[in-house]
Amino acid sequence: MDNEQSKLLAASQGLMAQATPRAEDGDEDFNIGEIFATLMQYKWFILAVTMLAIVAGVFAVFVSTPIYRADALLQVDEKASGLSALTALQPLMEDNTSVSAELEIINSRMVLGRVVERLKLDIVARPDYFPAIGRAVARRHKGDAPSEPLLGLAGYAWGGEDIRVETLDMPEPMRGDVFTLVAAADGRYDLFDEDGQPVLQGHVGEPASGEGVTLFVSNLTARAGTRFELSRLPSEDAIQRIRDRLSVRERTKKSGVLEASLVGPDRPSLPLVLDEVLNTYVRQNVERRSAEAENTLKFLETQLPIVKSQVDAAEVAYNNYRQVRGSVDLTLETQSVLQSVVEVDNEIVKLQQQREELRQNYTAQHPRVMALDAQLGRLQARRGAFEKDVSKLPDTQQTALRLKRDVEVSTTLYTNLLNTAQQLRVSKAGTVGDVRIIDDAAVARLPVEPKAKIILVLAAVLGLLLALGAVWLRRTLRVLVEDPEKIESQLGLPVYATVPHSKAEVEIAKAIKSGKGQAEQLAVVQPEDDAVESLRSLRTTLHFALLDADKGSILITGPSPGVGKSFISRNLGVVLAQAGKSVVVIDADLRRGHIHREFGFPRENGVSDYISGSQTLSNIVRPTSVPGLSVITTGQRPPNPSEVLMHARFEEMLKQLGEIFDILIIDAPPMLAVSDAAIIGRHVGATLLVARAGMHPMRELEQSVKRLAQAGVQVRGFVFNDYDLNRQRYRYGYKGYVYRYSYK
Q: At residue 694, what are phi and psi to the nearest 5 degrees?
């Protein structure tokens, strides 16, 4: 008989091994199926985090201030030189400023400082909005009248408020301080400093002064009590604010066409500010070119009297000589030499004049200055040759030639200077500059920021990445057992049954806990559930496992609370009773036992009452609606559960019940929490540990087995509960279906 029992036990273990899915070689590696299974396991968490990120993105779009953009076009003509007809002045008026230099000029303090001064951009006056959402709510206000305050917060602006400050003067050290203006009734207001101290009181449309501050408010539309923030920025800060929002670039390389843009939240003021920037730049360009002509004209006007006196002196000297010597006629040869000398002297004077003008802007080593010096050297060499020819003439002819030359050179120079001065006067009057505005500033109808679609897409992507990162981190930090094979391979103990997750049991438990459902068992109301089918497989396995046991009792415990040991105990008792066995389920968790609730019994009159002697065995055994199944509740909660279970009457109770029932199923407290399971385990025929998928690290299961062994209790095997068949289907493909087989 013993030989037959051994064969049956070996056969049952073989069947059990076939029923348990085996991982193929390489399944331990992290593969695509594992990734997909993990994603499906945490799909609701990932979806929740992603949706939360999208909601955050929607909120960001709602509260973000729209940024608008104004554009304008400029043309820079680097070769322009005033009136095109004055070609004689082209070398004098030519401007070689590069486009890159013009870009720097537009962004200079010279231009932007004038804009700040004209438009008073250093005065900042704005309503005080509620943090985060106040500006967004005010921006969506419709109507001209100020909005009513939300949540009774009357001090904040909620839409429709407006303020216009014409003057805000204060000492230089106070520049940058933020003042608070509080609107009052009848157009009055109060101004406070940063410490909340009163500065002045005023009325709209009238200047007000106090504590060194002068304020003129031309318009104030707000409810009484609404606060506004006022400040006067230092000039550098105001200029930098424009510079940060202003962008100027050459549209295409070497085109000379500049595209200027200004961004900001105040859509109506953008074109005004940008037009003022461009007009200021154009004005300074015209002024610069006009100033060049004016400087040259001033130089010529200082030279004209000097040259005129030289002309007069030369004519007087020449006439006096002729009167003294009589009428001296120059020969043809002398006249030819005179003409050549006059031409050379005129050229020398012109080049010297150009050199003086260049020296105002360039050093002596500049290439243009050095080129003029070289030309002067050549002309002076020619003049030296002519001087040798003159020295060969008679003395009378030499003197007459020199005096006549002085007259003609001075006269020619004076005439040229007069012509040049007149041309400069005409050029100054007609100067238009070398830049012009092609397109005035215009603002786009839609804001350029925020880009709602991009923000929402980025929020969704970031939320998804955050959720995936959290899942990965949780999986990395918590190495939990999700495959029953790991228990068998690392602990060397068999897994008697793998119980799939049951949605029907979850609904039953919720209904009973809320008091809306009746006491019922999954094996009764859903007999074809996959979890019940797995318990039937456990029933068959236990039949062979208890053949060599001297007692027909089974202890069911777990490493920690919440593993489902009570669910296993109750429904295993049902399927055993349905197989014709007489079964009693004993709730030995004297601390937190709740089996009485699932069967609809009161807690009283149970295990603790029998051990204390207040109840007999027949009084504590309660039959259920399932034929052959009885239940013993915990009874009154004792102050010392462990000492109660160590009492001799507990062992006596188990012996008496073993004589009455075929199988005893004892639901014990968690092993790692208390020692009750170790006490009970010495009085039963077999001990099973319930492990829940994805809840325990392997170390926890190993420690549970070790503690029971130290107490002299041998664990027969495990029941792997709450197994996710869908996850395993994603991991292993068709193999996930081996746990699911029914008559449907």
A: 70, 20
SS3 545: helix
> What does the pLDDT read at residue 430?
52
Q: How far apart are CA 431 and CA 400, in angstroms?
A: 46
Residues 6+ apart with CB under 8 A from 14: none
Looking at the chain, which residues constitute the CATH 3.40.50.300 domain(s)?
483-738
Place of tokens 């049902």: 574
Q: How many residues does the chain have?
A: 744
Closest CA relative to residue 302, chosen from 347, 357, 344: 357
Pairing of β 435-443 and β 663-667: unpaired
Give the E-state strand segments of 558-668 in sequence order.
583-587, 622-623, 629-632, 663-667
What the block records as the tokens of 547 is: 């053949």
Indicate the residue type of 715. Answer: V
Asked if residue 538 lies in contact with residue 484, where contact means CB atoms within 8 angstroms, the answer is no
CB-based contact 609:649 (threshold 8 Å): no
Q: Compute the distance between CA of residue 222 and CA of residue 622 in angstroms, rounded to an integer.
A: 78
Q: What is the mean pLDDT of the chain?
A: 82
608-640 confidence digits (pLDDT tens): 999 999 999 999 999 999 999 999 999 999 989
> For the chain, which residues score pLDDT lower than 70?
1-31, 33-34, 78-98, 290-295, 297, 318, 321-339, 341-342, 360, 385-406, 421, 423-433, 478, 517, 545, 548-550, 726-744
Name the nearest CA neighbour of 129 among 121, 139, 119, 120. Answer: 139
Does 3.40.50.300 match the CATH number of domain 483-738?
A: yes
Q: What is the pLDDT of residue 361?
A: 72
Which alpha helices (DSSP H) does 602-697 contain, by range? 607-612, 617-620, 641-645, 648-660, 676-681
Q: Which residues of 311-320 are buried (b: 16+ CB within 10 A; e: fewer)?
A: beebeeebee
Residue 303: predicted pLDDT? 74
pLDDT of residue 609: 93
Element (H, E) at 500: strand 495-500
User: In Å, how far from its chain's centre is CA 392?
Assistant: 93
Q: What's the pLDDT at 220?
A: 94
Contact 260, 246 (CB under 8 A): yes
Q: Look at residue 89 in the predicted model and tell me its pLDDT.
A: 42
Maximum CA extent, the chain: 173
Residue in 484, 486, 523 with CA at minimum distance from that of residue 505:
523
Contacts 24+ apart (CB under 8 A), 151-158: 154/223, 154/225, 154/226, 155/128, 155/182, 155/225, 155/226, 155/227, 156/127, 156/128, 156/129, 156/130, 156/226, 156/227, 157/127, 157/128, 157/129, 157/222, 157/226, 157/227, 157/228, 158/130, 158/134
Number of C-beta neighbours around residue 450 at 10 A: 17
pLDDT at 33: 67
**Between the CA atoms of 591, 595, 597 and 602, what dihedral angle is there, to the nearest 10 degrees?**
-70
Residues 402, 408, 413: CA angle, nearest 5 degrees: 125
And the tokens for 74? 């400029």
Q: Is the dihedral of CA 401, 404, 409, 412 positive or negative?
A: negative
Which residue type occupies 290?
A: S
Yes or no: say if 258 and 102 are a contact pair by the CB < 8 Å rule. Answer: yes
Cα 266 from Cα 306, distance rounded (Å): 60
Q: What pLDDT is recorded for position 514?
A: 78
Distance CA 343, CA 379 (A): 10
- Output b/e per residue, 638-655; b: 16+ Cβ within 10 A: beebeebbbeeebeebbe
Q: Is-above-0.90 flag for pTM?
A: no
Cis previous bond, 171, omega within 30 = no
Give CA separation, 236 vs 221, 240, 274, 731, in Å: 30, 6, 18, 65
